[in-house]
Amino acid sequence: MTTMRAHPLSILHGAEPCASCGARSSGVCAAIEEKDLERLSALAVPILVAAGRTFITEGEPAEHFFTVTSGTTKLFKLLPDGRRQITGFASRGTFLGLAVSSSYAFNAEAVEHSQVCRFSRTRLRRLIEDFPAMERRLLDVASNELVAAQEQMLLLGRKTARERVASFLLARESGLAGWAPPQAKGCILLPMARTDIADYLGLTVETVSRTMTRLRSERLIEMRSPTEIVLRNRDGLEALAAGMA
Amino acid sequence: MTTMRAHPLSILHGAEPCASCGARSSGVCAAIEEKDLERLSALAVPILVAAGRTFITEGEPAEHFFTVTSGTTKLFKLLPDGRRQITGFASRGTFLGLAVSSSYAFNAEAVEHSQVCRFSRTRLRRLIEDFPAMERRLLDVASNELVAAQEQMLLLGRKTARERVASFLLARESGLAGWAPPQAKGCILLPMARTDIADYLGLTVETVSRTMTRLRSERLIEMRSPTEIVLRNRDGLEALAAGMA
DNA sequence: CGTGCTTTTGAAAATCATCAAGTATAGTGG
DNA sequence: CCACTATACTTGATGATTTTCAAAAGCACG
Known about the structure:
2 copies of one chain form a homodimer. Chain A has 245 residues and is α+β, with helices and mostly antiparallel strands. The first copy, chain A, folds into 2 domains: 10-145, Jelly Rolls, CATH 2.60.120.10; 159-241, Winged helix-like DNA-binding domain superfamily/Winged helix DNA-binding domain (Arc Repressor Mutant, subunit A, Orthogonal Bundle). The first copy, chain A, contains 7 helices and 12 strands. The first copy, chain A, has a 5-stranded antiparallel β-sheet with strand order 1-2-9-4-7. Chain A has a 4-stranded antiparallel β-sheet with strand order 3-8-5-6. In chain A, strand 5 (72-78) and strand 6 (84-91) form a beta hairpin. The longest helix of chain A has 27 residues, at 132-158. The first copy, chain A, is globular and about 55 Å long. At the A-B interface, strand 6 and helix 3 of A face strand 6 and helix 3 of B. Chain A binds a DNA duplex (30 and 30 nucleotides) through helix 6.
């Protein structure tokens, strides 16, 4: 069980983190205008998180907000016996820590070496009061996540293993849409392990593996490597994901 | 498949809906102070929704927000072949319609005769601009729902049938906590049908029924009627729901 | 007092999980 | 640089929880 204390691997020393931030234009920070960027920068603490490191632990006092500026992280909840449900993957531009209560309701761990920006909850709240646009932005973020969560509930509650995997692959592709690395269209990278995919889809590793093998044998996908997937028959996958197969 | 058009059964004619509203103190409307209540009232359109009536349809233009002021409603998503996932039950005080996009991402239907308040999206937005407290309140609502959604993902992805039913019953009880009808502590009412419970827990009706029968035979619960349940062994249920059984 | 719906119960079937082992991949140290 | 070890992924056989199919029992309503 991964219940290690959350603590940063290292803290970057940079003068103006926000201005040059890769996530500047996406996410919540986009609500801040150029001229006010300095105030935001003053609050932001850039942190490098090594792969596998937990940086938010369920139940601990929620003292910070985070935004992911590079890499991939996973958010998850645990049952006492170790069963795990990954509730989402967060990559560049994603805002974390919207929990209302005084303690976090989930864990967050880096899938690969990632960079996150840490904000003191109390100090950011003060900043938010000065920038109503940011609060609206936060509401948008929360609303979007709510919609995604409902979609995921449909997947977990009612879709078959094949449908889940197909949905996942398609979501991965469209998720990359905006700022994807220079790759052939239809080719996606899966930074997370099969176990993570399984825990995200409510399946076992074996079922995920078998299902992907089957999708490959049906020419719906191609597997260049375990982490590099090509969507070969997008229409077929979409029909599957929508539950029409 | 319940894909009937959303339309109100009838519109109540009352002078000051908000002041006398049962949900006044809970939910989003609590953000409005006494003196500004009139402005809110002017926007609120109270609507009676008959049991089984759909009042929000997925994909339709999201022109309104709603708050449930009495009764119980269910929110759900559908797959083309009719599979259904209920993402939540909304009763007194619950705010609906947080979808960001221009169209609803879910359906809402009354479980029992219910009253809801309808607000024009655009007009309410203007009101919100004048009352920052309301926006903060909306963010709180969204955050809370997000936490609940993550908990439900854990349930749907990783819990067994018994654990799901136990979790559901406990959530029902604590949900009623504040404004429960004058009932013996530990006794809960289930206004929704077994099918609804099944579609909420990602199970079939038969499994829900069997599971409840088993919980009864194990003296964890008592069933006065299909809709009236007594939690007989709360500790046992909580251990079960937490996955420790 | 039927008629229709909801709930419950039973038996068979199926999907997915578990257990087990083999293969591939990556990282490590000699 | 290569062998070695650890980890991740894949594949196979078996099994169990849950679904599906089927029907009886309970209730509500006309």
